[in-house]
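[Automated response] Your request has been received and processed.

Submitted sequence:
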Amino acid sequence: MQQRAQDEAVQAYLNHIGELLLDKDKPLRQSIEGDKPRTLARARTLTVLRRLDGERKCSVVTFLYEAALISKDHLILNLRHSDLSGVNLAMTNLGGVNLSVALLSEASFFTCNLSGANLRVAAMPEASLLLSNLSEANLPSANLLSAKLPNANLSEADLRGATGLTYDRISTTKSLEGAPCPTARSTRTDSKTESTARMRGRTNKPRLHGTGQRVSP
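Generated structure:
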């Protein structure tokens, strides 16, 4: 029964957004910030996402992406603060998508193409980014606490200010070539050893592959 209710909610949402896109007087794509069509579309989107499971959230996101409504280069529908927790976007193509300030905890981006995506200040704790393509993605101040990064492509990605990164997890990525990174800490660091090393003035810290940046051991 719950699944049927979610399916009906998704269908009603898609119909509503479709009507806004095809409106003869002021189609959604021709609206500007503050116009009624955009306000209605955003309100409906935030409301429906809170009611859906991960698979159906994926249906909404891919629909909006394919309708060219959430591209960072021409953003029509802003998904900031939208509840996309647990969304399953595995194996999808979302290059250049704008998901800044979205709630993406425990989201699955397995093998997802997020190249050039705007994920600024996105909340992504425990998100799965295995084998994902995040090349040239913008992740400043993103929350990546316990995010799974094995074999993720982060080349040229902007990770400045991103939180929750450790050297142990960053070292599992496929590439960090040219990626500006925050200082990452090892989960294996012993606080007493670290304090002693600082007193002795040790500076032999490992570098992140491809960045030339030193990180705390």
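Summary generated for your ticket: The chain has two domains: 1-70, 83-217. The helical segments are 2-22, 36-49, 54-66, 167-170, 191-200.
If you did not submit this request, please reply to this message.
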